[in-house]
C-alpha cells in the first residue's frame, strides 16, 4: 500500500496548487453539491494511478479541487460501493489518500431510505450514529500503524463540536441512525421491520466503510443523509433508483444551503 499511495499522491499533487483541508464525498444524485466550487481543478479517477473508478449511476467519477465557503476542499464526485465489487480495503485506500493530501475533516453525504415513519422523502438528516450490516470492515488485515491503532474507538465517530454548530443554524434538522447494508438489491419489508427494531432510522449501501477508515486515521467526520424514499414496505410502491435521483434533484437548493453553511462554520 505504501508504494501505491506514494504514486497516487505524487500524481495528484502534480495537478493541484492548494492543500485541501476538507473533503466531501458526494452520494447518489448529489454531485450538484460540487457546482459551487470555485477555481476548480478536476481529475478523473481513471487518470489517477491505483485509484478505483466509480461505476454506480449518478456518480461521475472525478476529484474536484477548489474553494467552497472559503475553504480549500476536495470533492469526490462519485464514491465506491462494496456492491460494485470493490473490497473495503479499496475504500480505505481512498480515505488514506485524502489524509495524506492534508484533509482534516470529511463531510459525507448519501442518499438513503427512510425507516423512521416520521421522516419524509426529501428530508436532510444529520446522522448521529451508524450500524454496520455490511459485515465488512476496511481495517481487516495488517494494521497500518502509520495511520492509526489496531483497535480504534468507535464510541464517538462524529465531530460533535461541528454538529452543534450546524444545528445552531438549522435547529429543526432531523437526526437519525444510519444502517448500512451490502446491496445492490433493496431491502425486503421484513428486513426493514427488523432494522427499525435495531434502532435504525435510515438505510443505505455506503458511508460506513468511509467512516471507519476516517476514524482510524484521525479525520473528523460529519454525515448528512438525504432521505430520498420511504424504505420497503412502508408505502405500497416499488423502490427505484430513478426515484432516488429525482428526489435528490428536487432538494438541490436546501441541501446545498446546509452543506455550504456546514463548511462555513468550521
Give structural notes.
Strand 6, helix 3 (160-169) and strand 7 form a beta-alpha-beta unit. The chain has helices at 2-13, 88-101, 160-169, 189-198, 208-217, 241-250, 252-264; strands spanning 22-26, 38-44, 62-68, 71-77, 105-114, 123-133, 174-181, 202-204, 220-230. It has one domain: Rossmann fold (3-Layer(aba) Sandwich). Strands 5-8-7-6-9 form a 5-stranded mixed barrel. It is 30% helix and 26% strand. The mean pLDDT is 92. It is of the alpha/beta class and 266 residues long.
Q: How are the elements arranged and paired?
A:
Elements: H1 2-13, E1 22-26, E2 38-44, E3 62-68, E4 71-77, H2 88-101, E5 105-114, E6 123-133, H3 160-169, E7 174-181, H4 189-198, E8 202-204, H5 208-217, E9 220-230, H6 241-250, H7 252-264
Parallel strand pairs: 1-4, 1-5, 5-9, 6-7, 7-8
Antiparallel strand pairs: 2-3, 3-4, 5-8, 6-9
Helix pairs in contact: 1-2, 2-5
Question: Which terms would index this structure?
Answer:
266 residues; five-stranded mixed beta barrel; Rossmann fold; alpha/beta
Brief description of this entry?
The chain has 266 residues and is an alpha/beta fold. It has helices at residues 2-13, 88-101, 160-169, 189-198, 208-217, 241-250, 252-264; strands spanning 22-26, 38-44, 62-68, 71-77, 105-114, 123-133, 174-181, 202-204, 220-230.
Strand portion: 25-35%
- Morphology call: globular
The string of secondary-structure elements, in order, is HEEEEHEEHEHEHEHH
Span of the ends, CA to CA? 32 Å
- In the sheet with the most strands, the strands line up as 5-8-7-6-9
Amino acid at each position: 500500500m505504501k508504494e501505491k499511495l506514494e504514486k497516487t499522491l505524487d500524481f495528484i499533487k502534480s495537478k493541484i496548487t492548494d492543500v485541501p483541508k476538507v473533503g466531501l464525498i458526494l452520494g447518489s444524485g448529489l454531485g450538484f453539491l460540487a457546482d459551487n466550487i470555485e477555481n476548480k481543478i478536476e481529475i478523473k479517477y481513471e487518470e489517477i494511478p491505483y485509484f478505483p473508478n466509480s461505476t454506480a449511476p449518478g456518480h461521475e467519477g472525478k476529484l474536484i479541487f477548489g474553494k467552497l465557503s472559503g475553504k480549500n476542499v476536495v470533492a469526490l464526485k462519485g464514491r465506491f460501493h462494496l456492491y460494485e465489487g470493490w473490497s473495503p480495503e479499496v475504500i480505505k485506500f481512498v480515505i488514506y489518500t485524502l489524509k495524506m493530501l492534508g484533509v482534516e475533516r470529511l463531510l459525507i453525504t448519501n442518499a438513503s431510505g427512510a425507516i423512521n415513519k416520521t421522516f419524509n422523502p426529501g428530508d436532510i438528516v444529520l446522522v448521529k450514529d451508524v450500524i454496520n450490516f455490511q459485515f465488512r470492515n476496511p481495517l481487516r488485515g495488517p494494521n497500518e500503524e502509520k495511520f492509526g491503532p489496531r483497535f480504534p474507538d468507535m464510541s464517538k465517530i462524529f465531530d460533535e463540536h461541528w454538529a452543534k454548530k450546524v444545528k445552531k443554524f438549522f435547529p429543526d434538522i432531523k437526526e437519525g441512525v444510519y444502517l448500512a447494508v451490502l446491496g445492490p438489491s433493496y431491502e425486503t419489508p421484513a428486513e426493514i421491520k427488523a432494522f427499525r427494531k435495531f434502532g435504525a432510522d435510515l438505510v443505505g449501501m455506503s458511508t460506513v466503510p468511509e467512516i471507519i477508515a476516517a476514524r482510524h486515521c484521525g479525520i473528523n467526520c460529519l454525515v448528512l443523509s438525504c432521505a430520498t424514499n420511504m424504505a420497503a414496505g412502508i408505502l405500497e410502491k416499488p423502490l427505484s433508483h430513478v426515484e432516488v435521483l429525482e428526489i435528490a434533484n428536487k432538494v438541490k437548493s436546501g441541501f446545498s444551503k446546509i452543506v455550504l453553511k456546514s463548511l462555513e462554520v468550521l
